[in-house]
Amino acid sequence: MIPVQNYFSSSNLQLTAASGTYVLFIDVSKDITLEIGSLGEIKFVKGFYIYIGSALSPGGLAKRVERHLRSEKKLFWHIDYLLNSSLTEISAVAWIADQQKLECSISQEIDKLVDLVSSISHFGSSDCKCKGHLKLIKGKSIRDFYKIILSVIVPFDFVFEKFSNNLSR
After folding, report:
1. Containing domain of residue 124, as a range?
2. How many domains does the chain have?
3. pLDDT in tens, 79-96
4. Is residue 6 domain-resident?
5. For the whole prediction, is pTM greater than 0.90?
6. Residue 147 gets which letter from DSSP?
7. What share of the chain is helix, strand, coil (3-state, %, to 5)?
8. What distances in angstroms separate CA 153 from CA 50, 90, 96, 115, one per listed residue?
């Protein structure tokens, strides 16, 4: 077990412009089938998902996560297509300010929790060899899974921002 600090806040999002890696905690409220860019049609079952991404370009974490939170945007990344649905909601964000691209190593560590997650094949990973950067959380609430991430696999200080009451489910 690796000790990390937890930062919980109900205030406005205060992300850094630094480069880093982020995790979006997503609630899909009903089963849906969506066209996801080059991946084609994908069925998403009702449940909780996490998406691991990186923000290494100018504007860093603040610019990238704020883009994901906007409803009006050009659909570019796989995650844009999912978040464009009225049946999805980002309920929380965790992030690490770091110059290194850590999304693949975090994604691969999470994939080791095969009893707890299932990767959506090739989702968000067209530029790497990962199974997928979007994971369906099996039978656990986002809050439970967040605790697992913090207590087991993430050797970094994560900052956590809650957006809705979905974490209590």
Report:
1. 20-168
2. 1
3. 999 999 999 988 878 888
4. no
5. no
6. H
7. 25, 30, 45
8. 14, 22, 14, 15
